[in-house]
Amino acid sequence: MRPIMMLCLPLLLAASLAHAVDDTTEPPADTSGAGTPDAAQRASIERAVTGRYVRVTVNGHGFSLRNPPVAEVGLGAEDAEIEGYAVWVGDEEMRIAPPSLPLAWRIIERIEVQRSGTARAAWVGALIVPTVYVIIRQATHHSSHEDDNDFLVPLGLIPVGAGLGALWGAHHPRWESVWRRP
Prior knowledge:
Blueprint: H1 2-21, H2 39-49, E1 53-58, E2 61-66, E3 74-75, E4 82-84, E5 86-89, E6 92-95, E7 103-104, E8 108-115, H3 118-140, H4 152-171, E9 174-180
Helix pairs in contact: 1-3, 3-4
């Protein structure tokens, strides 16, 4: 059973990590001409940003909005709250003044929404912790006979890894791009 565990668990781990890292896919660029999304794209953007924390890139700087309304003229409303990010230049912190709302489509470079990382991190943790245990156990165990319950400890570590991964993911959300200007 040991050679099979040594081969299968790292392969599963590698496949899972490859899937977890493959979250950087870009949405299709807006090809409507002037960088203004058409009605179908605006409806898709509105579905994605409704009730979510949104990060908008304008002139290379990120700004945060919460549940911004999507309109034909742009993103956000005059009474919405917008937060600017700090930018470090050398050792000095500079605050970028947020632009006025609504943000016109022509100045928006990218829109991203915050997603929970809990489920994905739980899956990765459920695979990493038992795999690390099996690798360490194989490297340090010098007995010539197999224990009958060698597979029980890694199985018991699956929920431990899932719990640790879920805690990590709850505190480290991921960002998903929903629209970008060409």
